[in-house]
Structures
1.
Amino acid sequence: METRHPPTPEAIVDRFGRRLVYLRLSVTDRCNLQCAYCRPAEGVAHVDREEILRFEEIDRLARLFAGMGVTKVRLTGGEPLLRRRLPELVRRLTAIPGIRSLPMTTNGILLEESARPLREAGLERLNVSLDTLREDRFEAITRSSGPGRVLRGIEEAQRAGFQQIKVNVVLIRGFNDDEVFDFLAYADARDVNVRFIEFMPFEGNGWSREQFLPYREALERITARFAVEPLPREHSSDPALEFRVPKQRGRFGFIASLSESFCAACTRLRLSADGRLRPCLHQETSVDLKGPLRSGATDADLARLIRGAAHLKQEAHPDYLADLAGPQVSGITMTTIGG
Ligand code: SAM
């Protein structure tokens, strides 16, 4: 979608010529799960409520980003469904000219009750994170009960009109890699798409090379059983490598962030719930937008700060797999940055 239009003078372009058109917007830093791979074991300090961007502030920034060529805004967190009055925010964001796509990534725990109001507010696409279909494993990884709640949430979302729901599965060797076929069967049964995500290292999340499962290995296991059909990428910047099993519903795909990094085609910026703009998930640097916003910055001032953050975007994240000393990821925590 972003290649259809030549960059305008307002466009956000980084030092490597990548045009940044995709904003991942964290609406809260709080989460109702404590996934072991997402946050340090000792937990994370939460931001004070008054530091969290208000809807008017998000609206103003989103309009500014849209004016600078951003066409896709993903709602994320923390857990976005914990943000009060989220349908109101969806209504505001869908009304912004230029924003053509507004998906959300959620853990689905609160989806059963929230799907319909969000759909009615104009949300069209959902990614639901679910790493295991087994109760005991779900409790072990999230420190909470209930794949059942998430599955009911997905069903309710389908009844509310969400189509092509994507289920995100972080594959961890020795934990859930024996569930690959269960997820393919689930995709077929419920007509959802499954995306297997490579396990990435973040501060204190227990990442190890032994637990890392490269996507090729998972794909080989699947191709040993099924003659799968590769599917063309919907957009050149879409990181997923997608496939389908003939005669089965639902696609499956891989986000191979480590073994086949997609940095060269990256179009993303991330705005944390407290208004810090981060050029890359794997980079500690961020630029504060909330302070200037609250102390009277003009749109031109804010646009300068946004361009400054884009300018800091690194060419590629470190090659964690090549680093025999182990990944250096201090200060980088998925849940607080916004996944
Ligand atoms: N709470 C929401 C959810 O669970 O989808 C949104 C935030 S969560 C941080 C966004 C995504 O990041 C989830 O799909 C989660 O599985 C993924 N994620 C978190 N830590 C990860 C890691 N270490 N490696 C790969 N993906 C990770």
2.
Amino acid sequence: MPSARLPLLLALLLPFASTCFPKQRRFQKFPENFLWGTATASYQVEGAWNADGKGVNVWDTFTHEGGHVVNNETGDVACDSYHKYKEDVQLMKSIGLSHYRFSISWSRILPDGTAASYNEKGMQYYRDLVDELTGNNIIPLATLYHWDLPQPLQDAGGWLNESIISYFEDYARICFQELGSKVKLWLTHNEPFETCWSAYGLGEDAPGYSDHPGTYPYQCAHNLIKSHATVWHLYNIRYRPSHHGKVGITLNVEWKEPKYANQTAAADRSLDFMLGWFANPIYVNGNYPQSMIDQVAMKSAAQGFKESRLPTFTSDEMNYIRGTSDFFGVNHYTTRLVEHHQNSPELVSFVADQDTLETFDPTWPRAASLWLYEVPWGMRKVLNYIRVTYGNPDILVTENGVSDHSGSLNDQFRIQYHSSYIANMHQAIQDGCKVIGYTAWSLLDNFEWALGYSEKFGIHQVNFMDPARPRKAKMSAGWFRELIKNNGQAES
Ligand code: GBH
């Protein structure tokens, strides 16, 4: 009886079927209107460092001084996007990007940092860029501050001087006024952790302060947080009613995995010092995380300081700061293992204050950047941590990417990296995270700060030996085009 035997036959053959045919691959579909974009930053791509009246900023000074960057390279020309922005927009268009994240060079439009020095030609560049983007149906996402502070403001103390808050407000007002009818998505700061730690504590980034790692980072962050809140309120009151846009901030966070299951407190503390430092004031209660307050107070007392090295907000300030972000911008690249480590009280430093030790799992693949291990599941954990800790906000992934040294067009490892992180972002959405978009770092190979041109993150190659700075699509650019066309990818 063939008809009776058929089920039996199937049952016998079924176990072999999965070995003969590849498993049906499920498709990771993203929500409708999910944003797919790429990011850059002014100093890293624009070049034209002294064109059309632009003033000098801290990265011009830092690179020209020598001794801070691999091969003493500079951003003087970089990708020359100041002149080649139309070509850049065509690259974006050919991939089908929905948004482009760029930053505005403060000293291009306010050469001495103050409103009195307004430079129309500098502003015209951003009007042209924004027109080119919107004319090609690409949503502009503008970052006001991606580390290139006008030098005269640095000479006055930069982010250590409270007066920076009103200078930043003046600068933001001019940007909102001139660009706000077309730019509806704004970020005040990029990675304040880096501004205040790498630049004012570690000294790797401009202006390169490393003599006061136990005080400067905290003072920098205190003013920076207030500057963010001030600009959010400015937009909220003056511009939101007519422009209907959104203002957020981008925070960078590594996932901190407890090295030992019984040491979750150390990992939590580490997350507080990296992410909570800014996220707790802005998204929770206007104040620093309790673990930070306790830790720095305890250390400061043991060190003989009259008061904690961590400054305090007044209750008015806390009310003013709390709730000042319309979405949660996050840059995520990598993960670290964290364990408790009791530091000697002699160490007066933001890092020592944490009493933690960070390591890596030797099985994690590493990129060209020494700090960048490929740990895709960290993405899912970070997004869920933000959901649970910060009140389930809309999350925009504003950077994620991977480096090599060669800038080769055949960048399979980059496709693999993005694909696996995107898969984890997809899972986070199933977990309930409200992720609204993803932004790859970067559109182009570019000036990677202290690493110069030695580490390349682009989905397009740039030939830095050629004065014309020609661009070429890497394989990852084609892969992104498919991803965006399908609004998702097949499970691998
Ligand atoms: C982002 O920083 C930046 O927003 C972007 O401008 C940058 O190009 C991109 O990522 C790629 O790096 O060498 O151990 O001292 C990411 C955060 C901060 C990570 C500095 C590397 C140096 C670590 N980066 N950090 S170490």
3.
Amino acid sequence: MEELYKKAWDKIINAENILLVAHINPDGDALGSELSLYPILKKLNKKVTVFNATKPLPQYLDFLPNFNKITDKLPKNIDLTIAFDCGSFDRLGIEEKGEFLINIDHHISNTNYGDINIVKPDYASTSQVVYEMLKTNNVEILKDTAICLYSALVTDTGSFQYESVNEKVFLTAAELVKAGAEPANVAKMLFQRDKLSRLRLLAKAYDTIELCCDGKVAFVEVTKEMLEMSGAVKEDSDSIVNSIRAIVTVEVACMLREEDDGIKISLRSKNYADVSKIAIKYGGGGHIRAAGATIKDEFDLEKVKNMLKKDIKAII
Ligand code: 5GP
Ligand code: MN
């Protein structure tokens, strides 16, 4: 792996026009990881584009340094693309792979679509992989980089709660704090800027919670109507599935969300069920304890719920 980090950095050093890209509907790890390299590459005098196809971007991440540099426009010349936190090429929101692509990720379902693939499924976040790449190549971690990588680590570990959290994660976090990330400030930015519209959405969604399989499975629905009535936006519902998993009896939690092109499913498990298998079955992917997919051209929530009940019963 050390050699891969060196090979990747060598490619970066020798590139002129670099495109940084992360998965559509980005989370903290996606944007934090892609933005982390921006100040470092600028310092190296590279032409850098930080791309994300999603519009609008999640507002709760707008404190990340250089957030305002993210664009949904692709430049003409790209000699190197670096993809972050994205398990499959189709979720990057770009048409072509380009001349050379470095794929940096931690999804177990990653399809190795890059020319260099640095994929570490046992890592808590993509940012942890980015950190290791920088460290291996003796690259100085700038303060803005540290803030991005630390925020990504916090969001992807559920504030250091998940099974992926180990000694190495805390050592990485400590190094990032040493490099200038301020934990209390990041926590305030991430968790103390909630909106009333989001809480109103939660209230509506919680009303639809359905438990089955002796309380081991929980479903929750988010409809377009709920979003409209509460004034919330799509990503405001992202964490709902985590709260449902927190119910004492629940092993598998599932959120179904109405979207323009179908039904988005988010799956979470607590102790033993591998939900990535179900997501992959529906053309999605993810991790063992957190996975998702969009069931395209399907708009019947009850039908999808019944399908998923069968799939989930088979793994619990
Ligand atoms: P969420 O349920 O929060 O959207 O996603 C949980 C995990 O599954 C994330 O790591 C996310 O990247 C991954 N994931 C969600 N939807 C998809 C999808 O449609 N395709 C793939 N490959 N991964 C997904
Ligand atoms: Mn991630």
